[in-house]
Amino acid sequence: MITTDEVIEERGKTYGDFNRGIVLETQLLEAIKGRYYHHYGWEMPPIYCMYLTKILMKLSRLAITPDHIDSWRDIAGYARLVEVHLTNIESQANAQSS
Hints:
Layout: H1 4-15, H2 18-40, H3 46-62, H4 69-97
Helix pairs in contact: 2-3, 3-4
């Protein structure tokens, strides 16, 4: 059975240093949140930040392994999940206003 430390070591070899990845993700999220704030004048809702963090993690990994197809698939999957969620919210709001 593979240990947690072995998994961490394996991921580090594939995706680079975890801490450097977290720093990149944080910088990207802060830039996006700053742009949102500049445009709207208020903070981005936390749920949108969470959507973005999933994709930003994959983008930080792609900075090391841009040919890793699973990361691209994961981004597509996260984007689809957000699309479905937002579509459901919109449908519910339309049903309530009818």
